[in-house]
Amino acid sequence: MATVFTTKGDLDESLLEKREGFIDNDHEYTTWVEYWHEGELVHRSAHVMLKKAAVWLNPEVAAIG
Amino acid sequence: MANTQSMCTSFMSEILTATHNFGTAPTRGTSAADTFKAALYLTTATVNAATTAYSATNEVSGTNYTAGGVTVTNATAPTPANSSATAGVAYWTPSASITYTNVTLSSAFDAVLIYNSSQSNKAVSVHTFGSQTITAGTFTLTMPSNTTTTALLRLSTT
Asked: Least crowded by CB within 10 Å, which of A9, A27, B99, B106?
């Protein structure tokens, strides 16, 4: 059985309620997972994948004369 | 053949490696790359284009999170790429995901500041994402692909 690191130490995953979700938009694709034990949130992890650069610069040179 | 007014793409890449100095630059003791770090900020913070350096104000705090954040893996030097006689892009992306392991960050956060810890913690860029909290877990920021159109930092002419 897999164990999950939680606020109560390592717990067997079978003892936990697992909840998952995601955010998917032009900016990011994010997944998160929560484990609940007896009505208490004991673990939450998140993974953010940035889809595109948030920084875009456009330097220019000027014509002379 | 013809001459074309343009900013040299190699110059844009060399800006990213501190090759050119039009003003007064820090004295460098080494030609090695600087160390860059990534700090997380609460949704109540104000980090943006006006941010000039790392600050602990409104930075996240919690179990196993060290103020200042974590070091960014930088194994790939900036790359210049020409697309025409007048256009090009120089780009850079951290070479690994930014990871905060086994942390508890109970207050919502939604931004990461990349900054140069070798140069007085001067700011580089701010990247935002959907609000998150972490409980006895891991927060991972996976970087976009290091290409001309998706790299995390791009200096571009068109």
From this structure: A9
Which of B127, B135, B158 is closest, CB to CB, to A44?
B135
pLDDT in tens, A51-64: 865 556 677 677 77
Question: What's the rounded Cα separation, in Å, for the pair B34 and B91?
Answer: 16
Distance from CA of A27 to the nearest CA of B (A): 8
pTM of the model as a whole: 0.91
The kind and range of the H/E element at B147 are none
Decide if B39 touches A, using CB distance below 8 A.
no
Q: Is residue A22 part of a domain?
A: yes
d(CA A47, CA B142) in angstroms, rounded, equals 7
The type of residue at B64 is N
Q: What is the pLDDT of residues B95-143, one digit of tens each?
A: 999 999 999 999 999 999 999 999 999 999 999 999 999 999 999 999 9
Count: domains in chain A = 1
- Determine, yes or no, domain membership for A45: yes
ipTM, two decimals: 0.86
